[in-house]
Amino acid sequence: MTSSADRVLTTHTGSLPRPPELAELMVARETGTADSDGLARLPQMVREATQQVLQRQREAGIDVGSDGEQGKIGYATYVKERMSGFDGEAGALSLADLDDYPEITAQALNGLVTATPSCTGPVRYTGVEDLSQELKELRAAVDAAGGQAPSEVVVTAASPGVIAIYLADQHYGSHEAYLGALAEAMRTEYEAIVAAGFVLQIDCPDLAMGRHAQYAEATIPEFRRAIAGHIEALNAATAGIDPDRMRMHLCWGNYESPHHRDVDLVDIVDIVMTGRPQAVLMEAANPRHAHEWRVFEDFALPEDKILVPGVIDTCTNYIEHPQLVAERIVRYARTVGVERVIAGTDCGFSTFASFLPVHPRIAWAKLASLSEGARLATEELRAPRSIAGTVRTAGASA
Question: Distances from the Cα of 330 to the Cαs of 56, 301, 307, 333, 373, in angstroms?
């Protein structure tokens, strides 16, 4: 995995806005309203969109990019298209913070369309050929783009735990058995992504959002025990992959809401860091979690880990000032070491095809601000620090 002690690198969490016509067609396919002509055009539309986002990421200054999840209806629910066993009625996802404030639910989840069938039979990975073709096409797109693509490309995949949140179990009878089956099935996808030469990112909202989406009535100790089991399943599924070819995304839910039910990072960080992936992406810009950089003043980041704090909020149309971005980056770099920090985003900009909390044009402007903020942070981190210089700066500001 790319890292640097010379400058602050940039990345993002995976999903990027899809062209409107592609998003509309994906929703039509998801809802069963797409015609045969549209379905026939879909693969080419995905290929073209992927080529475009690879180039635009490079233009925005992103070092470690992705395919933008252009071919996925949703970051977690796409798996139902690649595995057997999901033929049951759709389950309902409950988010405790929205349950407390139901009057804003429609606003918070505006545009979100995805099917969530329950598991009613044995889970088996059946999409090997489709996955192989997708990875071959992505490799061809990256190679064709040459210097116009990010220097390193990530492919995202859902964690066993987050799949269990969206696709309820009606077959295995125990959460542990269901997790184990999901982990064994997803091992196929995880290993294929790495074998194709890409970095694997495993999306793990179950380790944080799971607190208010799945375990809202649990105590903190009970939730800690639950996510320890999720980590165990994840580690088993990735046992054959080198940690430095993986990163994991910790997320409290990429939707604009009160988030007052979010579990504090300090309550889960030690368990999260037992996951095998080397890099950990986490929300660090939004109003509920921007203060949690201080957790790492007391919690010693394991020597084998890299932090990817989100320094760009993905739920607001504010474009962060590059100096604010730099300030956020510098806090982390001076706490855990510049060589162990990559600047990222809180989450994706289109975690579901039709779900766009941030306008697409603004999403790209935010990524450009991320890159400029990383440049400013690099300059600041290279500059010598002195008490006198700090006093003069403060005096000039006053």
Answer: 26, 16, 13, 5, 10
User: What is the value of pTM for the model shown?
Assistant: 0.94
Handedness of CA 188, 169, 209, 116 (dihedral sign): positive
Helix-, strand-, coil-residue percentages of the chain, each rounded to 5: 50, 10, 40
List of residues 6+ apart from 339 with CB closer than 8 A: 3, 4, 5
Q: At what angle do helices 128-145 and 175-195 cross, to 10 degrees?
A: 40
pLDDT for the residue numbered 395? 41
Q: Does an H or E element contain 343, and which? A: strand 342-343
pLDDT for 393: 40
For residue 249, the one-letter residue type is H
Could you tell me which residues come within 8 angstroms of residue 92 by beta carbon, excluding any fewer than 6 positions away?
none
Contact 381, 333 (CB under 8 A): yes
- Relative to beta strand 152-158, strand 279-282 is unpaired
Positions in the chain short of pLDDT 70: 386-398
pLDDT for residue 394 = 41
Alpha-carbon distance values, 79 to 129, 167, 227 (Å): 14, 10, 21
What does the alpha-carbon distance between residue 310 and residue 208 come to, in Å, rounded to a whole number?
A: 15
Show the DSSP H helices in 101-216 as ranges.
Answer: 105-108, 128-145, 160-166, 175-195, 210-213
Distances (CA, A) of 169 to 100, 116, 163, 175, 214: 26, 11, 10, 8, 13
pLDDT score for 300: 97
3-state secondary structure of 368: helix
Nearest to 215 by CA among 109, 96, 91: 96
Q: Is 135 helix (H, G, I), strand (E, B) or coil?
A: helix
At 173, the amino acid letter reads G
Instruction: Report how far residue 70's alpha carbon sits from residue 83's, in angstroms, rounded to the nearest whole number.
Output: 19
Q: Per DSSP, what are the bridge partners of residue 166?
A: none
Measure the CA dihedral 329/330/333/334, to 10°.
-160
For the record, the structure tokens of 74 come out as 């949703």
What's the Cα-to-Cα distance from 267 to each of 111, 211, 220, 228, rounded to whole Å? 32, 11, 7, 12
17-76: pLDDT as tens digits: 999 999 999 999 999 999 999 999 999 999 999 999 999 999 999 999 999 999 999 999
